[in-house]
Amino acid sequence: MVYDTIQSYHTIETFVERRTKVIFPWGQARVFLTFCYYKKIFYCEIHITVLFSYKKRVSMTTKKKSQGYTTDDIDKPEGLEHIRLRPSRALGDEPMDTAFREIADNAFDEVSGGFANEVNVYIHGDNDFEIVDNGRGIPFDWSEKYDTNGIILTLGTSGAGRNFHHGSDAVVANAGTNGEGGAGANAVSTRFDVTSRRDKKSYTQQFKQGKPGKFKGKDFDPLADFVEDSSPRKLEKEGKKTTQPNGTSVRWSFDKELLEGFEFHLDSVLDLIRYHGHLTPGSTLNIHCDGKTVTTVGEKDNGTVPLLKDITGVEEDETFTISGEGEFNIRKGVTRAFSWEVAARINPLGQGKTYGFVNGIYNVDGGTHVNNAANAIAAALSSKVPSLRGIGKKKGDNFEDKDFISTMDMVVSVRGADIAMKGQEKAAVSSQPLGRQLKKAVDKEMKSWVSSRKNNKALVAWGKAALALSREKKSMEAAKKRSRSKQDEKRFGRQVTVPAKLTDCRYSEPGMGAELYICEGESAGGTIKSARDSDFQAVFPIKGKILNVIKAVDKKIGANAEVSGIIDSIGAGIRTECDPEKSNYDKIIIAADADADGKHIENLIITIFYKMMPDLLAEGYLYVAKSPLYAIRGKNKIEYAYSPEERDEKKKEVFGKKAVPEHAVERFKGLGQMNSDDFENTVMNPHTRVIHQVSIEDAKEAVEHAQAKEEEEINIKKQVEIIREVMEALMDDDSSPRKTLMEHHGISKENNYDK
Asked: How high is the pLDDT of residue 17?
């Protein structure tokens, strides 16, 4: 029998299978009723499939695939070689920048612990750097436990340090936390000399590319002959008497061959070290270049106010500060203490910037501490300022929190242990509990601060700056809407209004880092709204199947609420008039179910951008969020998996060798099944989510799939109609339709059906 032209009767098969699958102890049987229509002849077939020992066959297949994979195939690089193989994994996208800062952070940790009061940074040459502190000096004695000396253990071994416990003698608010940074700097250096001064003796351990040994000659020459140690040396036997105070000196040169292609930003690194000096109480920082002292940050320069003055260049009397202490949860029943200080000032131009720091380290991407502190300050100001004389009395004047944030320069400094941050670069704070507690504390202090000032000049000036910014934005928005209305009226035959389904964020102006989530399903839309960061994440939920715009005319597109709503929300225009710089959002992220239907909806949305807003695609504005298939929920830990294989691995991570409860593994059938925490952890949080940037080639493939899917659906509809016609004829009480059908299709008893 021939089936070449019959491709889409699987719907009927599935319908029947659900009612005819039979499970036996020895296997299972399935009955398929298949309708085929070929060359004007109608066929009805019954297929019975019996499967024996199904599970056994699967396990045999798995075993066969695993052959050839043994323990000998597993690599374990020695020493610091794993960092040299992948420097970006240990030190981030800018390994040299991070390595330099890590060595400086170790020096400042000695100051934070009360063991030192001075840090000196020396730039000896183009690739010759040194950082010296007057702390305790790295221990150099021999460790019987690890069979090495203290310097090799500290900086020549990955994952070694004192900050893994919280005993009485532990320094908990350190910049260094996981023992990776200093070792990483060593690994990416062609020469790395560590000198420790303790008890009037000086001890030096040298490294080449992370391996301990000795360089020949007295000068610091990375090209000098090097003899690798066959075994770690006992430095106590090689110490020299010294009159210099205790402390540690690290001198190094980067391995330029290993780090070829990576950029080094020395000036920026020195800025960050200077900021660290401001935020480390009791420290004096000196930066020397070619034998001259070029920068000094003394004890009088410690604190957030001098730091903000350093960053912005404004006088201290224009700045106010608030500070306090608190506790936050790192997990259920376990808390950590933290201290905080905020300095803020007016930026009358409406170009304010916020800066976040944890234990002296600059968080370039901010994080929960910055966002929550800024929101608390803005909320206090917006509630107080309108009551001041002469502020906001014009018709239409109103204050929004974001107006005060835009007119504020702010430094947020937090010190504490176990503060969750993004990567080895510590680019952002991700701890939600810390953010919430900080917001409460700042809110309390700000309410007290503003309540004591009735017509304070600073508050009045701040209110006027925020009001001017608010009026300017409203004027620009009105002009923009007028312009867009005229253009879009010509395109779509209607005026454009703000889509009712759009839940916007606080900052949706171009270049503000705002994100628009286009999500499948209004139920998922409700959850995603509760999980989002309302400061920069907007949500546009779509309902049902979205229009395929490839063959649709503009008036049909304009009449479609879903498609036109997406276009109007973005605000960048369409086709040749599409201008990415006018987009209200810097990222547009598609969030759809992780199934075939969700993939189809994803392709249709991509198709909208391909046809209507191609420049947004070309400039990299469009992304697709990857949603998990499983959640593995342990008592104190939740892991997410994106495949069955990853699910099995995550189960081991969460439960180890323990039995996994049935309720602990949840299979997500769609976005609507995920709670707000699931959304936040996997789809929304910039630090933990997985998103894919859509390229032009990706878009072309999506268009092809969308078209193929549409054609398939059309064919299915046609075949369903044929089957319906056949069934009506066969099931009718009157025999004449059956006879007519058979005669029409040439069916008779003389037909040879085996041919």
From this structure: 38
Q: Is 100 exposed, middle or buried (0-12, 13-18, 19+ CB in 10 A)?
A: buried
Q: Rounded to an integer, what distance in angstroms lies between the CA atom of residue 705 and that of residue 719?
A: 21
Instruction: Find out whether 653 and 660 touch, Cβ atoms under 8 Å.
Output: no
Q: How many helices (H) and strands (E) does the chain have?
A: 22, 28
**CATH number of the domain located at residue range(s) 497-627+668-694 in this protein:** 3.40.50.670
Which residues have C-beta within 8 Å of that of residue 342, sequence separation ≥ 6?
304, 321, 322, 323, 373, 377, 410, 411, 412, 413, 442
E strand map for 150-271: 189-198, 201-208, 211-215, 226-228, 240-241, 247-254
Predicted local confidence at residue 85, as pLDDT: 86
The CA R_g of the chain, rounded to the nearest whole Å, is 34
pLDDT digit string, tens, across residues 515-556:
999 988 766 667 787 788 888 888 898 876 688 888 777 778
Half-sphere exposure of 738 (CA within 13 A, CB side): 8
pLDDT of 442 higher than 50:
yes
pLDDT given for residue 166 in this prediction: 47
Contact present, 229 and 213 (Cβ < 8 Å): yes
Instruction: Tell me which amino acid residue 511 is.
Output: G
Q: 């069955």: which residue's tokens?
A: 644
Q: What is each CA distance from 54 to 18, 483, 583, in whole angstroms?
A: 19, 66, 54
Check residue 172 and give its pLDDT: 53
Lowest-confidence segment of 115-124, 149-158, 337-346, 474-483 by average pLDDT: 474-483
Q: Which residue has the tokens 């000068």?
A: 219
Query: Domain coordinates of the chain in residue numbers?
Result: 10-66, 84-300, 304-474, 497-627+668-694
pLDDT tens digits for range 353-384:
889 999 998 988 888 888 989 888 888 887 77
Tell the residue number behind the tokens 């719907």, with chain if given: 11
Architecture field, domain 84-300: 2-Layer Sandwich (3.30)
Strand partners, 409: 345
Per-residue model confidence as pLDDT tens digits over 290-311: 889 999 999 999 999 999 988 8
* CATH fold group of domain 304-474: Ribosomal Protein S5; domain 2 (3.30.230)
